[in-house]
Design brief:
The complex is a heterodimer. Chain A has one domain. Helix content of chain A is 74%, strand content 0%. Chain A is built from 8 helices and no strands. In chain A, α4 packs across α5. Chain B folds into 2 domains: 84 residues, RNA polymerase sigma factor, region 2, helix turn helix motif (Rna Polymerase Sigma Factor, Chain: A, Orthogonal Bundle); 70 residues, Winged helix-like DNA-binding domain superfamily/Winged helix DNA-binding domain (Arc Repressor Mutant, subunit A). Chain B is globular, with a radius of gyration of 18 Å. The chains are: A mainly alpha, B mainly alpha.
Chain lengths: 164, 180
Amino acid sequence: MPKEIKDIKDNVMDQIHEHKLKMRPRIYFVVGSFFAFVGLISSVVISMFFIELTSFSLRTHGPMGQYRLDQILSSFPWWAPVFAIIGLGVGIWLIRRYDFFYKINFRIIIIASILAIIAGIWIIDVTGLGDTLIRRGPMHGIMKQYLQNNNTQDPPGCYKTLEK
Amino acid sequence: MEENNEPTDKEIVNKIRSNDPDSYSIIIDRYKNKLLRYATNLVHNEDEAAHIVQDSFIKAYINLNGFNIKKKFSSWIYRIVHNEAVNAIKKYKKEVPILDNIDFKSNQNIENDFEQKETAAHVKDCLGLMPLIYSEPLSLYYLDEKSYEEISDILRIPMGTVATRINRAKKLMKNICQKK
C-alpha cells in the first residue's frame, strides 16, 4: 500500500487542526442557492421579454400584405432572439445545478422550459400585460428607441404614448 | 441481542458541524478504504487515487455545511470522489475511450454466468478494460454494493439509465472477460 494512502487521515486532520481547512459557513450555501434561484427566474423572464420583443417587432410591420420582407430583415432586432436563447440556456444550466434534475429526463426539462416560456408569453399577450409594459413598464424605453431607430409604424396600443 | 453503538453518519456530521472537527477522523476511517477502491477503479492508479480521495475529504470538509442532512452522506462523498476522479481523468487524458461498436450479442444467462463464474479479482481486471460509463455503475453495484438509487445519486443519472448501463456492462464484461 502506498505511503500516501496511510497518510490521508493524518494529512487531512493535521490541516484541520492547523486551521488551514475551514468549513464554509451555512450562509454561503443559503446565499448561493438564493442567487441560483434568482438567476433561474431572471433567465426565464429575460427569455420571455426578448421573445415578446421579437414578436412585437414583427407586428410593427402591419398585418396581411403590408409588410415587406426586406424591411423586416433590415430592421429586425436580431439580438433579441439571441438574448432569448441565451436566457433559456442559462436557465437550463441553472436547473441542472439543482439536486433533483438528474432524476428527470433532460429532454423533458428542455421541453418543459420552452413550453413554460411560450405559455408565459401567451398569458402576457392574452391578458394585455405586454401592451401595459410597453406603454408604462421597463419595455417602454426600449420600444420607443426601437421605433425611432427604425422609423416604424407603431403597433396597436403604443400610438398615444410613443407619439407624445 | 447485540446493541449497535456506532454513531450514524448523520450524527457524526452534526457533531462536526457543531464545532467538533475531531469527529471527522471517524468519517475518514469509515470511508477511506471504500473510496480508495472506488477511485482506483476509476483512474487505475493507486497513487492518483490516494490524491483524489484526500482532495475529496478536504472538499467534503470545507463544504460540509452545504450537505443536505436528509440525504445519504455516503452518496454525497462518493459523488465528490466521482467528480474529482473525472476531473483527474480529463486532466491526464487517461480515460478509456468509449467504444461505439460494442458487441452486445450473447443474452442468455448472462447474469447467472456473471454471478457464478467470475471472481472478484478477474472482475476488477476486466473493469479496467471497460469504458468508464459502464465500469463505474457496475463497480458501484457489485464491489461497493450500492443500490440503484444510490448509484443514481452518485452519478447523477436517472435510475433507468443506471439499470441500462449495468445490464450493458454485464454483457460487455462477459465479452471482454471471455476474450482475455
